[in-house]
Amino acid sequence: MLALAFPAIDPVLVSFGPIAIRWYAISYLAGFVLGWWYCMVLARANAAGPTSKDYDDFLAWAVIGTVLGGRLGYVLFYQFDYYLNAPLEVFYVWHGGMSFHGGLLGMLAATWFFIRQRKLHYFAFTDILACATPIGLGFGRIANFINGELFGRVTEASWGVVFPRGGNLPRHPSQLYEAFLEGLVLFIVLAVLARIPALRKKEGFLSGIFLILYAIFRFGVEFFREPDEQLGFLFGGATMGQLLSLPVFIFGIILIIRAQRRAA
Question: Which of 47, 68, 104, 132 might form a disulfide with 35, Cβ 3.0–4.6 angstroms?
Answer without folding.
Answer: 132
